[in-house]
Amino acid sequence: MGDGGAHTLNICVGSGMTSLFEPDATTLGLFNVLGPLGKVTRRVPLKTRKLDDISKIRHLDFLKIDIQGGNLAVFRGGAVKLSQAVVVQTEVSFVTLYKGQPSFGDVDLEMPRQEFTPHCFAEVKRWPIAPCIVKGDPREPLNQLLEADIVYVHDFVRPESMSDEQLKHLALIAHYCYGSFDLALRYVLLLEQRRALETGVQHWYLQLLTGK
User: Fold this and answer.
1) Helices (H) and strands (E) in the chain, counts
2) Residue 181: Cβ within 10 Å count
3) Residues sharing a CB contact under 8 Å with residue 96, sequence separation 6 or more, in sequence order
4) What is the rounded distance in angstroms from the CA atom of residue 111 to the CA atom of residue 55?
5) Which of 68, 129, 154, 188 is 20 to 30 A removed from 171 (C-alpha atoms)?
6) Residue 134: strand, helix, or coil
7) CA-closest candidate to residue 192, choices 155, 157, 164
8) Per-residue DSSP letters for 136-197?
């Protein structure tokens, strides 16, 4: 997936660093281990498709995406399908490792335009700045933020834009995938108010959480 255009896939020594973006040797050299992993071994012409143009994906509730910098193009080319989604989990970069790669700030500007708000970090990756090595391990981090998986949810400040089914799906994902019981409870309450759930379900859910 991408912007629908023709690109070049840069295949790297480290398979997890393969990307439509060219690795930035200068930035990679600032971090232990990453330089050799980001060396390009082969370049392959590749035609991408927009998310909105993929007919096999008829409905989208939850999107988890990690494509080494290409996520912003997917979001911009998938606004119609993402309008159905309630959760997006995406990798973002605080230090861009590729030339022209969108940063966390770029992604975080786009998501509110599509009615998503940040909810939590599912994972945060720190990396040691070269040449510092801690405990003899070149991967042992200190404080420098490198990447993270951030979770965006459909804007719960304005739930009127969501259907009952979307509220139900978001409550389930919040509970089971992230342990976000407060968010799940909020949607259970809204579903009660809409009479899409029986009165008293929110109290039952609270009892389930507290064990009382």
Assistant:
1) 8, 6
2) 16
3) 24, 27, 69, 102, 103
4) 23
5) 68
6) strand
7) 164
8) TBTT---S-EEEEEEEEEE-TTSGGGS-HHHHHHHHHHHHHHH--HHHHHHHHHHHHHTTSS
| Cβ-Cβ contacts under 8 Å for 42 (sequence gap 6 or more) | 11
Residue 71 has a CB neighbour count (10 Å cut-off) of: 23
Q: Which helix (H) or strand (E) element contains residue 21?
A: none
Cα–Cα distance between 212 and 3 in angstroms, integer? 51
Question: What is the rounded radius of gyration, in angstroms, for the C-alpha atoms of the chain?
Answer: 20
* Cβ neighbourhood burial of 16 (10 Å; 0-12, 13-18, 19+): exposed
The answer to whether residues 28 and 76 touch, using CB atoms and an 8 Å cutoff, is: no
Question: In degrees to the nearest 10, what's the CA dihedral of 158, 159, 161, 167?
Answer: 160
Q: Tokens representing 151?
A: 């979770």
Torsion angle, alpha carbons of 152, 155, 161, 167, to 10: 70
pLDDT in tens, the chain (212 residues): 999 999 999 999 999 999 999 999 999 999 999 999 999 999 999 999 999 999 999 899 999 999 999 999 999 999 999 999 999 999 999 999 999 999 999 999 999 999 999 999 999 999 999 999 999 999 999 999 999 999 999 988 888 889 999 999 999 999 999 999 999 999 999 999 999 999 989 889 988 888 76
* 98: β partners: 23
